[in-house]
Amino acid sequence: MEQTSHSLDPADWSELRALGHRMMDDMIDHLAGLRDGPVWQKMPDEVRKNFKKSLPAAGTDLSSLYADFSANIKPYVTGNTNPRFFGWVHGGGNAVSMLADFLCGAMNANCGGRDHVGIAVERQVIAWAAEMLGMPTGASGVLLTGSSMANFCAVLCARFAALGAAARREGFGRQKLVAYASAGAHRCVPAALDMAGLGSNALRLIPVDKNFRMDVVALQMAIVEDRAAGKRPFLIVGTAGSVDTGAIDDLAALADVAERSGEGIWFHVDGAFGALAALSPSHKPLLAGIERADSVAFDFHKWAQVTYDAGCLLVRDAAVHLATFEQETNYLAPAARGMAAGQPWPCDLGPDLSRGFRALKIWMTISAYGSERLGAVVAQNCNAAMRLAVRIRQNAGMEVVAPVPLNIVCFRLKNFSDGEMLNLVANLQEKGQFVPSTTTIDGRLAIRVAVVNHRTTNDDVDAFFKQILRASGAIRF
Length: 477
Ligand SMILES: Cc1ncc(COP(=O)(O)O)c(C=O)c1O
Fold this sequence. Notes:
The structure is a single chain. This protein is of the alpha/beta class and about 475 residues long. Helix content is about 40%, strand content about 10%. Strands 1-7-6-5-4-2-3 form a seven-stranded mixed beta sheet, sandwiched between helices. The longest helix has about 35 residues, at about 360-395. It binds pyridoxal-5'-phosphate. Pyridoxal-5'-phosphate binds near residues 146, 270 and 273.
């Protein structure tokens, strides 16, 4: 009797090959022509409806699906590949990483563990990250979705360091652990404490100075106060590149406070995008002290231009990192030989067991461009932001509302109400010209421009400035 094959591979590969080549050509054209299209466009209702269908029982021909993708998906994505996308600290991606994503799909490697090259590539990338930040050679690390996850895992490491192995089995009873971060810390930091079961109230937000950096004296006072109240300070989170303004805490001073506390306070740095400033020799000194951190969270998908998603956690003490996450299970028992060799596996360094081959696109991006060229992109973005800030400062109708240490400019239009500024931003976005975003600085709404894309030039920020002038009618250019 003849058997039916349910393999998903085609009987004849030639059609798929031809379509695959076309897709590759189209996507290369797409990247090459980014400047010609809108930054973002709102998806029409019919497109939204297209994604509210019931589960398809029968398959659809791939060429019609690709036509659907071209008409209904490709035009309506975030637009952060475009050089005029300045919203929310999104990275621009790069062509090499796109190709690596394709290769990664073909390999379909599960990088949770086992002895294969995917794990070796990830360890290489972690070693490069440690080298970049001046952490010791033996530092451990793991690739994760992004810094939200990496910050969460760092809190778990700090919790382990404070309470030891027993707490992993028994919970942490009445221990009143308390952590500290600046008032400008990202929202994922309180979320990490919440998810770690410590409660977001276990995070004390320390006021910032006029440069939006954590007030170190206030931090020291808070620690003394908390100890006196019977609490246990266990973690200081420094921010290297705050999401609102790009402020970098005095990391060396925070490292001193943690070190001198005498009770083993864990020093973690949230360097989601700012840690990558280490690639630029002229910006690296701003991060002094990061090399003393117990752990650092950052994203290759932001300032290293790797395609989403590519977050990273580095942990100085490899033993603590492993002890925080490792689990013994029969079906994942280590072996001396064969494919089950090669511990520690990434599944024992974070919460995920099945994991894709994220390391490939990071390894290919860093290898293809080299750290110097990636560092030059960081410097180019910071210079573009500074250029914009200078133009704004020179204009009587506008004000820059926070210092610009890196790549983020927050400003207001003096004669505009908050509602008018929100409208202006939405108009720019809806016209597809530019995508800035907004935030609140010192209780006042501000327009926020984050320059993170390697494609962004000075001409792009000049064009943005002109457009703001035109749109606001503030003063003639
Ligand atoms: C300072 C900071 N921390 C954490 C995050 C969260 O990172 P992710 O979006 O990769 O989870 C961000 C995101 O922009 C950030 O700017």
